[in-house]
Amino acid sequence: MDRFQLGHAGTAQWQEAIDICLAQMDLTKPANLGFIYLTDKLAEYVYDILSHLKHRTHVQHWVGTTGVGVCCTGQEYFNVPAMVMMLGHFPDNAFSVFSAPNETVVEGSNEFIDTHQTWLASKQPLFAVVHGDPRNQKIIHQITQLSERMGEGFLVGGLTSSRRHYFQIADNIVEGNLSGVMFDSNVTVSTRLSQGCAAIGTRHQITEASYNVLIKLDDRPALDVFNEDIGAELASDLNKVAGHIFAALPVQGSDTGDYLVRNLVGIDKENKLLAIGELVNTGESILFTRRDAQTARDDLIKMLGNIKKSLTTTPKGGLYYSCLGRGASLFGENSEELKIIQAELGDIPIVGFFANGEISHQRLYGYTGVLTLFL
């Protein structure tokens, strides 16, 4: 594979944005798959944009979605009309674009199996780039099922973020479920995840819970344990914890200490209860985390150093999916998050968006950054 082609533009006219993006590319070079991300301020034109791109580039396979923010090498676009795109050339028949036509990707007899079963059986794909609809309550189940259908395949991606339209692109315009592109073993990637929160206190065992409500931790009232972990200053005014302190569920079997960050959604001082944005069970582990700009920056740089050390060749291009809670609000204005990546890795062509949740392996994360490099 040759180095991928990158284009980006921030302008209110979608035709002009396409012209600017394509002017940054050499369309004489071979390409058979495009990645495209649009801010939601251009989402209403997505049908015209996709049709126009297929005609102008002669590339028929495109995947992507919409976001409140999109990003590319060294550049972030938030709350403005913008698009980023990347063209790559992959070995023939090394990928398969898909979209789920109904609520399940792999269960039962459905269009997904009918369309992709032969390719899946012959290729045994190990990796996929996926986009999901955050309005779909079964999206986590779809992510797990797709990974299992791929033989525990590794997924990366994110959930669409938008204030209106939740369009995804998978050769056509779709929404509501899971879509993306699967790759066979001829496509080599390296992928890493960076957490945006730092653990505080110690890991606790959930000794009593009901649905998403923590009743007891380590056989003590959940709120008492929580208050001890966050410290006296915050415990004296629990209104200050919103957007600052989160629950974290350790990922079983992770050798890197990964955890799934979930929001605190309710505090009952009288009964000393704590509700979080995830169903929990007695016997599981939990800890609390703090959203901290310096820690997020340090972890991102550490992740970039690790992925850089693993490289044996120069990447052709990459994808980066970051949380809406990161970007300018966590790293600062002037595209700081993407500039950190550029400073550490150089001018590798990278595109992506700011998601409603980030996908890595079989799991849906929050407040993370997921980087994938094509080698």
TrEMBL record:
The keyword Transmembrane applies. It comes from the Bacteria. Keywords: Cell membrane, Membrane, Transmembrane, Transmembrane helix. Residues 222-362 form the FIST C-domain domain. It is found in: Cell membrane. It is a multi-pass membrane protein. GO terms for cellular component: plasma membrane. Residues 30-221 form the FIST domain. The keyword Ligase does not apply. This is Histidine kinase. Transmembrane segments: none annotated. InterPro entries: FIST_C, FIST_domain_N, UCP018953.
